[in-house]
Design the sequence.
């Protein structure tokens, strides 16, 4: 059973471009969480989604950031008009039932904005 | 709670010694706690968890202690090995309140051979 998959692993974008980060949850998992990690810091919750629904987006910046988890395909975290402060590692976790102790993390996408 | 600062605290131990990593959590309503291990370039890996109705839980070579009075968690690693070198994070959660994990600031464990 493959774990949580994220791609790309590394992404470089110039200021003003768009970044799209993809997350494929573990097989049988329908709950996805996105977290952001700045260097030398802990992970910060961004958004919690179930298939076709955003459950909790209290950690998402109000502008430029959006997330979706369609019925088919991976979850997408989209950052429009990236700025240098968006440079971070973005981790996705998945869960079967939504109980927090079941969250399994992917390897992350490291976004660098130049 | 929220992590601040640019540098992680570092714990350096000799191989074979026991390690104790501490964490202060922020929310007295949190009822579930997890320790994660994060190696360089990888995502967090689950180590051990504990619910708020317990004060101690043991796994293989690891023990988690919870002191709700002072909102403190500790992770004890017995007979530390070079493969234990990583950054360790505690995370707290309130079940029935969104399911998101709130991570602490992390401690870097370095094991000297």
Sequence:
């Amino acid at each position: 059973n493959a774990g949580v998959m994220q791609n790309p692993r590394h992404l470089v974008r110039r200021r003003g471009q768009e970044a799209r980060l993809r997350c494929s949850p573990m097989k049988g998992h329908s709950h996805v969480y996105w977290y952001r990690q700045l260097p030398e810091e802990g992970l910060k919750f961004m958004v919690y989604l179930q298939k076709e629904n955003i459950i909790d987006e209290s950690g998402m910046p109000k502008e430029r950031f959006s997330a979706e988890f369609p019925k088919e395909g991976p979850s997408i975290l989209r950052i429009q008009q990236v700025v240098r402060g968006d440079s971070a590692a973005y981790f996705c976790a998945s869960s079967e039932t939504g109980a927090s102790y079941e969250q399994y993390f992917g390897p992350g996408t490291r976004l660098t904005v130049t | 709670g929220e992590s601040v600062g640019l540098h992680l605290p570092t714990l350096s131990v000799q191989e074979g010694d026991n390690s104790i990593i501490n964490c202060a959590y922020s929310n007295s309503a949190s009822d579930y706690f997890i320790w994660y291990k994060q190696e360089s370039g990888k995502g967090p890996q689950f180590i051990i968890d504990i619910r708020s109705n317990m004060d101690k839980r043991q796994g293989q070579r690891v023990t988690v202690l919870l002191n709700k009075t002072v909102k403190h968690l500790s992770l004890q690693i017995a007979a530390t090995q070079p493969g234990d070198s990583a950054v360790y994070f505690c995370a707290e959660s309130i079940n029935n309140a969104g399911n998101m994990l709130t991570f602490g600031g992390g401690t870097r464990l370095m094991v000297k051979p």
The longest strand of chain A covers residues 43-50.
